[in-house]
Automatic annotation (TrEMBL):
This is RIC1 C-terminal alpha solenoid region domain-containing protein. Residues 658-690 are annotated as: Disordered. Pfam families: Beta-prop_RIC1_2nd, RIC1. Residues 465-635 form the RIC1 C-terminal alpha solenoid region domain. The lineage of its organism: Eukaryota, Fungi, Dikarya, Ascomycota, Pezizomycotina. GO terms for cellular component: cytosol; Golgi membrane; Ric1-Rgp1 guanyl-nucleotide exchange factor complex. It comes from Orbilia oligospora. Residues 676-690 have a biased composition (Gly residues). GO terms for biological process: intracellular protein transport; retrograde transport, endosome to Golgi. Keywords: Membrane. It is found in: Membrane. The keyword Cell division does not apply.
Length: 690
């Protein structure tokens, strides 16, 4: 067995006698051979899947060299004659932490970048696991050969541009044109190194560089060639930059090794774009090791955001640091002498990344419904939410202002909402209500002599957890306000169904007291939406029958729900309630309810539902007698009055009723006149009778 940390410290590889596994810093399993027991290792030349005796990471942290080996006895190990190179894909956040890289997923491999494109797709396309959601960008070999490994990757907030930086220089790419731009002059490229990160402001690339013992912030335009004579602006700093990040609509924060935070504003003139320093502050005695700070953000009061002087931002901002895996908040206040001081508090530990949604540009934030669409319910968008990934699950504070108020007024922080995920989450698609991520699977093919790994896209709904949190806190109005924000997504009904199912699953056995039970609140909440009846029936059909009695003790009688569905014209939903009534032994096969529904389905020419009802009746009585009686009751008759001919419905090919001659009813096709509601006798709809 051996253990090996990646060069950047964000992944731990463990080799065992019978396989290997890969974890993130705080324990999220992201790859393993132990989940691939069905791989035919003997058929494939994949000894590295069956056990390892040694391994080492290669520079760059996107490849690892492995030596397979099996223990033959207590003292001997049979080693492979081969060295296997396992390629990995790492998130751009590991090389450069900022909100833009979290908001738009980019994966880096040894020779290309993978850009996730689900943000701009339709709801259902975003949920797809197909590889088409990933846009492959080969890194130019001319840059790679001289500057490998690639250390930093940056994507623009709108997803149009990419930038990379290796050992020296940088290069940038346009996804729309498919073109890279690199330095034509090699001496200019090798003259500097990007040390403090990069970020995009529209088509302007800001880079923190070190050149000839000088520390600079440079602005490059995507529209110009990469050349030192075409740099738009250079800002010199007194010490190396630890990190840079965008803030607000036009702000840039730069944190340096001398423990200073600089606030710049992008200023556009007729001919160029410049950086203007509007404020700075130091954290001496507060942050002990600036080099260990991984990320920084700040939160400004609403009044300051709307109409405040930018030069006052540094004095009024609440600052968030991610240092040594701890998310720390520094809240400003003034002493009696008027001096600025900070109160420090640790919000969370073992943090792999966080994202403050207000750091995103307006185009990526959640659309806020106008008051007339909220119908009097409070506005509940998530544009001020704070998301933290702590190695296993995501934690969400829906309004960071409540979090900051709690940290000042009391010792207890308001609880975060837990959103469990069984894959590695990479970004939050706020407007779509889903979390996107990846998982790895081993693929075998018969036409090649080896197996290989494949990245698969994963998505997970999150707003059902937030709705439940509001309901558990007895805040139904907030839950309705939040749900209104997501009512337009195509899977909204499915999310409500998951909410109901999870609560029912938790309370069906325990059946808590009315004062603490959440299920009644969920049911009342669901009744505010037109999907209510269908959500109930779909959830019921996917739940164990033993839980039905508890559900309907809260929801009400399924007979009443059937009547309501029928009155609203929700025929398929009404059919679901008939099935529930039958399962609960409250419905006979000759029930008038079945006839009423059958008649409505025929009248509205809903032949799919007719087919399902016919199949249901045939399952109750294989002789077909029950189905015949039902068809006669809804006025569907054989035109010749032949009692021996069977009745079936369009496209129902599996159901065959016995005929008098004992043959298949497929030999006795006969058109059937439509009911009087569907048209004139003999001239209505025709149902094929197999």
């Amino acid at each position: 067995m051996f253990l090996a940390w990646s060069p950047d410290g964000y992944a731990l590889f463990a080799g065992f006698e019978n396989g290997w596994a890969l974890w993130t810093t705080y324990g999220k399993l992201i790859g393993s051979t132990f989940s691939a027991d069905n791989v035919e290792k003997e058929r494939f030349n994949d000894a590295y899947l069956d056990g390892l005796c040694d391994g080492a990471w290669l520079p760059g942290g996107v490849e690892i060299a492995l030596v397979s080996g099996k223990r033959m006895s207590d003292e001997s190990i049979r080693k492979s004659e081969n060295i296997y190179i396992l390629e990995l894909a790492r998130s751009s956040v590991t090389g450069m932490f900022n909100a833009q890289n979290i908001a738009r997923t980019v994966l880096q491999t040894p020779s290309k970048l993978l850009v996730y494109r689900g943000y701009d797709q339709s709801d259902l396309q975003t949920l797809s696991t197909e590889q088409t959601l990933w846009y492959h960008v080969p890194i130019p070999p001319t840059y790679l050969v001289d500057n490998y490994p690639i250390r930093q990757v940056s994507i623009s907030p709108d997803g149009r541009y990419l930038a990379i930086a290796g050992r020296r220089g940088l290069a940038h790419y346009s996804i729309h044109s498919g073109r890279w731009k690199t330095f034509l002059n090699e001496s200019m490229e090798s003259d500097f190194v990007v040390r403090g990160g990069m970020c995009w402001y529209h088509h302007i690339l800001a880079a923190a560089v070190e050149s000839d013992d000088m520390y600079e912030l440079r602005l490059y335009s995507r529209e110009l060639q990469l050349d030192n004579t075409l740099i738009l602006h250079v800002e010199t700093l007194p010490s190396p930059v630890v990190l840079i990040t965008l803030t607000g609509e036009d702000g840039l924060l730069a944190y340096t090794h001398d423990n200073a935070l600089y606030h710049f504003i992008f200023t556009t003139t007729k001919d160029t774009v410049m950086l203007r320093l509007v404020g700075q502050i130091t954290f001496h005695g507060i942050v002990r090791a600036p080099a260990r700070v991984r990320s920084i953000s700040w939160i400004l009061p609403e009044e300051q955001l709307r109409e405040g002087d930018p030069s006052r931002d540094v004095a009024l901002a609440t600052v968030l640091f991610l240092v040594d895996g701890k998310l720390v908040v520094l809240q400003p206040s003034t002493t009696e002498g008027g001096e600025l001081k900070y109160e420090m508090r640790v919000l969370f530990q073992n943090v792999e990344y966080y994202i403050l949604m207000r750091d995103l540009p307006a185009t990526q934030r959640q659309y806020i419904l106008p008051p007339e669409e909220l119908n009097g319910f409070p506005e509940q968008d998530l544009n001020d939410s704070l998301w933290v990934f702590e190695g296993q699950d995501l934690r969400v504070w829906m309004d960071v202002k409540d979090l900051l108020a709690g940290s000042v007024e009391s010792k207890e922080l308001p609880p975060a909402v837990k959103v469990p995920v069984d894959f590695y989450p990479l970004s939050i698609l706020l407007s779509k209500g889903i979390i996107s991520g990846v998982e790895v699977e081993i693929v075998e093919r018969r036409d090649v002599a080896f197996s290989f790994f494949r990245l698969g896209s994963r998505t997970h709904l999150f707003f059902n957890y937030l709705l439940r949190h509001h309901l558990q806190n007895r805040n139904e109005a907030a839950a309705i306000g939040l749900a209104r924000q997501y009512e337009g997504v195509s899977y909204f009904e499915h999310a409500l169904e998951i909410l109901l199912h999870d609560v029912l699953d938790d309370e069906a056995d325990t059946q808590p007291e009315q004062e603490v039970a959440v299920l009644p609140l969920v049911v009342r909440f669901l009744s505010n939406f037109p999907e209510y009846l269908n959500v109930i029936v779909q959830c019921t059909r996917k739940t164990e029958v033993a839980s039905w009695s508890h559900l309907f003790s809260v929801v009400g009688s399924p007979q009443v729900l059937f009547e309501e569905s029928l009155s609203r014209g929700l025929l398929k939903t009404a059919g679901g309630y008939l099935l529930i009534l039958h399962t609960m032994e409250k419905l006979s096969s000759s029930s008038q309810d079945m006839v009423r529904l059958f008649s409505r389905a025929v009248a509205e020419e809903d032949w799919d539902l007719c087919k399902e009802l016919a199949r249901f009746l045939t399952a109750l009585d294989n002789s077909g007698k029950t189905l015949k009686e039902a068809l006669e009751l809804v006025e569907l008759r054989s035109p010749g009055g032949d009692e021996e001919k069977s009745f079936m419905f369009e496209s129902a090919r599996r159901l065959e009723l016995p005929t008098a001659s004992g043959g298949s009813s497929r030999d006795n096709l006969s058109p059937i006149s439509g009911s009087s509601r569907g048209g004139s006798p003999g001239g209505g709809s025709y149902l094929d009778v197999p």
